[in-house]
Write a structure and sequence with these properties.
globular; four-stranded mixed beta sheet; about 25% helix; about 350 residues; 7 helices; 14 strands
């Protein structure tokens, strides 16, 4: 766990600079741009190298993410510079999608930083690293100890098996197989980020559409990315969310024997493009929990339920509990629409 006051990480000076919130008014526009970009890059570097961050550090970085909004407010051309900075740090994400995600978040007046893997507040010390398979470099892992732990995960098209109903364990960092050849790392490889576009809808805020058709059910779309929260922190965030504000807190329940495993992911301040996937009463996606290195937290991955046409909006079900007293109106406009959005009981506590 990193210490933000440690002189070696460069954040002590950065934190002091943040205390002023904005550059001096006497600075020229170019000087403001240079200073703000320097701060922004510092945040990106820290987020990239520190995947496990304490709650105090998360609060600090949430505050510092306001820098992105200030940078974009200086002039429109400056946003292109920041997008290029993000592409440099994230690498495989298409520039246009990063730009769309940040621009949409800022229009919702949300300070936001684009990340490509979840930020974890704390690690469960009881979780042990899974053992890896002993496959050779030429193996495809279609019949290894990981993929067959609860039945074969993926078919020859690299799609989720339709009849799959048990837990999914993908090959992990301890496996001997070659990443490129392994067919049991579908969620760790390329997603559909190059095939999606963020749009502004008429009545649902922002949404995500597919540009080219997806032909097969079980196709991997992407992972829901954000801050992994404790249940207490998730409750606190709900209480602090105003009625008019968008809520990007996802609660996923897994039922195992007599216990429920709850995973809370908040994509309001940190996340990726999947934060804009809307609810539908007749969705074309569903969420599947995937284990890779450790039991918790699982990776929450989106897979297709059916064929999806070009320019069709992506959607998944936000839940099943409907109550006219607490649920917001649903605008999915499908023939099976209930008229109300699902809600989680935790929202009311």
């Amino acid at each position: 766990m990193s210490n933000i006051d440690h002189d070696d990480d460069g954040l002590a000076v950065y934190r002091l600079a943040l205390a002023t919130q904005t550059p001096e008014n006497s600075l020229s526009k170019q000087e403001k741009r240079t200073e703000l970009r320097s701060r922004f890059l510092n945040v990106l570097e820290y987020l990239k190298t520190n995947q496990t961050i304490s709650p105090i550090e998360l609060d600090f970085h949430r505050e510092s993410s306001l820098i992105a909004a200030r940078c974009l407010s200086i002039d429109s051309n400056f946003s292109q510079i920041l997008v290029q900075d993000l592409k440099t740090y994230i690498g495989h994400m298409p520039t246009a999608l990063i730009h769309q995600t940040i621009a949409a978040a800022l229009k919702e007046r949300t300070p936001f930083v684009y990340i490509d893997s979840c930020l974890i507040q704390s690690i469960n010390e009881n979780d042990e690293q899974y053992e890896g398979c002993l496959c050779t470099l030429n193996d495809t892992c279609t019949n290894c100890s990981c993929s067959n732990r609860f039945g074969l995960n993926y078919n020859s098209l690299n799609c989720l098996n339709i009849n799959k109903n048990g837990p999914i364990f993908e090959c992990n960092s301890e496996c001997h197989c070659l990443f490129e050849n392994c067919q049991n790392r579908i969620s760790q490889k390329e997603d559909q980020s190059k095939n999606v576009e963020i749009i502004s809808t008429s009545n649902k805020g922002y949404g995500v559409i597919i540009k080219k058709p997806i032909l097969y059910p079980g196709t991997y779309i992407g992972e829901y990315i954000g801050e992994i929260l404790s249940e207490n922190e998730a409750h606190n965030r709900i209480l602090l969310t105003k009625n008019y504000e968008h809520n990007y807190l996802l609660l996923y329940n897994e039922y195992q024997s007599e216990k429920i495993i709850k995973t809370f992911i908040d994509a309001r301040y940190y996340g990726n493009w999947t934060r804009f996937i809307n609810h539908s009463c007749n969705p074309n996606l569903h969420i599947v929990p995937i284990r890779i290195d450790q039991p918790t937290p699982p990776h929450l991955a989106f897979f297709t339920l059916r064929e999806i046409q070009a320019n069709e909006e992506l959607s998944y079900s936000y839940g099943t509990t409907i109550d006219e007293k607490y649920s917001k109106p649903c605008c999915c406009s499908t023939s099976s629409c209930t008229g109300f959005m699902p809600y989680q009981q935790t929202d009311l506590n």
